[in-house]
Amino acid sequence: MAWRAGSRSPLGLLAGLALAIAACGGGDADESIATETLVRIGDASPGDVVALRAAGPSTLEWVHRRDGEIMSLDVADPAAIPEVIAQLSVDSRGRRWGLLSTVVLGDGRRFASWTQGGSGDFENATLVVGEIVDGRPTRAVWNAGRVGATAIGGTLSELDGRIVLGLGLNVGWADDNVTSGALLSLDPDGTPDQEPTILSRGYVDPIAFTIVDDRVWVWDRADGDDTVTPTTVSDDQDDAAVTTLEPGASTTPDDVEHHGRADLADRHELTRSDRIRRSPTAMLALADGRIAVCGTDGDLVVHDVAVDGAALGQGAVVMPCDGAAAELDDGSLIAVVTADGGQSLELLRPADR
User: Fold this and answer.
1) Phi and psi at residue 122, in whole multiples of 5°?
2) Torsion of CA 64, 70, 74, 75, to 10 degrees
């Protein structure tokens, strides 16, 4: 991985100031938002730097999808450089393949999701969830079956000591069992053939979700663009065959984004978005109770939660973001931003929010 760290201030966070102009098309955000550059990753394209997470008061982790690396950086140490803490052999030939996400459970065990090749053929690649020990995968927890090139999901989180996986509609298990994407609960001590618990279904590509206590918030993309239209069958490897829903299953994903509480309903019962094609890439629960959503439209939008706690209110743009985001203990926000020559991790201090 090619990277270059920004110069550090005596306080240990960022001093290399980069002015980012955000298109604030809603809410009360300023016309220009000043962010500071933590790290520039020169070999990264949109969708390569994912699964950003705060792993401690000032420790940041992220995943480089194509390289199969989990990276860590102590942003409070002026001399720190990004460190590889795990390395996986992944199949990254598809547009959304590779190392997709990582989660550390309450007991300290780390798990990840990734795509791996079968016999070397494109058609035989599968999506796997497994445990990571000493920087290497040690055992598979679940095999989700074959994957299409896009809309395969892969985001991981934790709920009640179990692994929660956002599974896209272009994955074998989804096609065989719910004929749509789904949010699934997995036993971390299970075997690759375990039967997951379905939390919510009917999704396209639920990579943008977050869990707060027992509340599961999700913002699902619209069907279309680089996913196949329901009931269409394609031989193109950039698409994957999708069949109509079986009787009693959730409504087929439509061409509108949906968001809300996945622990309360399936996708078709969630709020239809009035913003056209945000194409959400990540969702983040903030310490102040609000929910932030990052999308390929280039914005990190922060939403209040409705009084009933079941829906998101109108949002305001707070900083650029087109990949993933995290919040440090001091309230600073860090987001992945794509610019000329690669991607960067940009920080927004609380005073600038």
Assistant:
1) -55, -40
2) 20
DSSP code, position 253:
P
What does residue 93 show for φ and ψ, rounded to 5 degrees?
-70, -35
Cα–Cα distance measured from residue 124 to residue 193, given in angstroms and rounded to the nearest whole number? 17
Beta-bridge partner residues of 153: 167
Structure tokens at 314: 């109108």
Q: Which residues pair with 302 in a beta bridge?
A: 292, 316
Residue with tokens 């140490």: 77
Q: Where are the beta strands (DSSP E) in 58-135?
A: 59-64, 69-74, 83-87, 99-104, 110-116, 126-133
pLDDT tens digit sequence for 226-252: 333 333 323 333 333 333 334 334 445
Residue 32 confidence (pLDDT): 65
**120 token code pair:** 């070397």
Question: pTM to 2 decimals?
Answer: 0.84
Contact status, residue 157 vs residue 130, Cβ threshold 8 Å: no
Please give the torsion angle defined by the CA atoms of residues 102, 103, 104 and 106, in that order, rounded to the nearest 10 degrees.
-170
What pLDDT is attached to residue 119?
57
**Low-confidence residues of the chain: pLDDT under 50:** 2-31, 225-251
pLDDT of residue 238: 37
Per the DSSP assignment, residues forming a β-bridge with 248 are none
Amino acid at 89: S
Taking the mean position of all CA atoms in its chain, how far away is CA 57?
21
Task: Measure the CA dihedral 312/316/322/326, to 10°.
Answer: -70
Instruction: Give me the phi and psi of 220, to 5 degrees please.
Output: -100, 140
CA pseudo-torsion sign 196, 213, 261, 56: negative
Lookup: tokens for 340: 């000329």
Cα gap 62→72, rounded to integer Å: 7
Please check whether residue 201 is in contact with residue 262, taking contact to mean a CB–CB distance below 8 angstroms.
Answer: no
